[in-house]
Amino acid sequence: MTNSPNLGRRGLIAGGSAAILAGMLASAPGANAAVPARQGRAGMPLAFGSDGKFRIVQFNDTQDGPRTDRRTIEFMGRVLDAEKPGFALINGDVINGSPKSALEVRQAINNVVQPMESRGVKWALTFGNHDEDSMENGTGMTEARMIEFVRGYEHNVNAGPEKGVEGSSNAQLLIRSGSSNKPAFGIWLLDSGRYAPDTVGGQDFDGLMGYDWIRPSQIQWYRDASVATEQKYGKVQSLMFFHIPLFEHHHMWFGSQFSSDDAGHAAAVKKHGIVGVKNEGVYTGAFNSGLYAALQERGDVRGVFVGHDHINTYSGDYFGIELGYGPGTGFGTYGLGGDKEHHLRGARVFELDEKAEKVYTATRTVFAKDLGIDMDPKKQPLDEPLPLP
Question: Which residues does UniProt assign to the signal peptide (predicted)?
Fold first, then answer.
């Protein structure tokens, strides 16, 4: 494996016909199309198949406006048709800050959830640092209002905001066994926030990353829900998804806590079984939230997967918890640059088998360039937004 040169974090790029794409989206229903999506929303909205298998697809950073690049939608559809997942996730930065009205926010979201919704694939989203950027344009679309909007879709399984818990996209989703009414695995969704405040204790964040972090109320919520789940069902192994990476994503790659020197990377690859590439920095929150320590304490999360850094794709086993990235999915935001701008547009797939000892059996990445998607660096926006439901 080679460690590609660090390209640095690029600025956000602001952002065929809709009728043709809408027809494309209506093809091949997913495996769960016949199951009413609302059934069991408060309990177990997802279920393993009779063969004991379940597949998750993670999209990341679709990050576009009301005229989303058509290739984002095409790629998502091709992945869903090929993988036929039981659940798909857009893990933060669902849209960018270009919408000028609440309608345009809804259109931007609708464009990238239609690949799941039109196929009957159950889905959810988490929020990233850019999802509320359009508030500066006077749209009034807070994350709470976006959650209210997406919960109106038939196949969405997002939960409503938890009272007293920071963020709007926190949720625990239990996946019911194919042979009983008990959960065989779980999915945690967290809202990793947006940006650090201007000051804390009278001090600014100059010299730090400047992004938000998982807050204590969220960690307490996770711990309480984890304990309650164990008391009811026994310990339920799970995966966790949120947008902004942990400090530990950095430490794993470099094999060091306080250095970004690649001198220790070769040893870290061997120690942690790292696969994939890192093409930009690990843009963590300003503070280390302590979430990773809480996960170690509870022992029920097998892996933590993030986005945010579009051109990082690596994953590895960090002291018993897999840490990794889903590659950036959207064609409307920054990529590798030059002729290879879109060559890491992708998704991450997770394989579950409830008959296997640890249930979570494998993860892999899927890239648009391998599915016949046009790699031309030039933008290809929709002629019109896809029709709202």
Answer: 1-33
| Contact status, residue 86 vs residue 44, Cβ threshold 8 Å | no
What's the pLDDT tens digit per position in 35-45?
333 333 346 89
What's the Cα-to-Cα distance from 318 to each of 179, 254, 276, 379, rounded to whole Å?
32, 12, 15, 38
**In a 3-state reduction of DSSP, which class is residue 177?**
coil
Of the pLDDT bands very low, low, confident and very high (cuts 50, 70, 90), residue 369 is very high
Task: Identify the CATH homologous superfamily for domain 18-370.
Answer: Metallo-dependent phosphatases (3.60.21.10)
How far apart, in Å, are the Cα atoms of 169 and each of 7, 159, 375? 30, 7, 32
76 and 329 in contact (C-beta within 8 Å)? yes
Cα 190 from Cα 239, distance rounded (Å): 11
Q: Residue 31 carries which side chain, given as an amino acid letter?
A: A
Q: What is the mean pLDDT of the chain?
A: 91
Signed CA dihedral, 314, 316, 318, 322: sign only? positive
Pick the residue with more confidence: 27 or 295? 295
Tell me the C-alpha distance between 30 and 80, whole Å.
8
Residue 331 exposed, middle or buried by CB count within 10 Å (0-12, 13-18, 19+): buried
Q: Which long-range contacts (CB under 8 A, 24 or more apart) does 28-33 make?
A: 28/81, 28/119, 29/119, 29/120, 30/80, 30/84, 30/85, 30/86, 30/116, 30/119, 30/120, 30/121, 31/84, 31/85, 31/86, 31/121, 32/86, 32/120, 32/121, 32/122, 32/155, 33/119, 33/120, 33/121
Handedness of CA 106, 111, 112, 116 (dihedral sign): positive
* Cα–Cα dist 235/359, whole Å: 13
What radius of gyration do the chain's Cα atoms show? Answer: 20
Tell me the residue ranges of DSSP E strands in 82-129. 87-91, 123-126
Three-class DSSP category at 123: strand
Distance of CA 46 to the CA centre of its chain: 17
Residues 90 and 179: their CA atoms lie apart, in Å, by 29
Which amino acid, 307? G
Show the beta-strand stretches assigned E in the chain: 46-47, 53-59, 87-91, 123-126, 171-176, 183-189, 199-200, 203-204, 238-241, 301-306, 315-318, 321-325, 346-353, 360-367
List % helix, strand, coil for the chain (3-state, nearest 5): 25, 20, 55
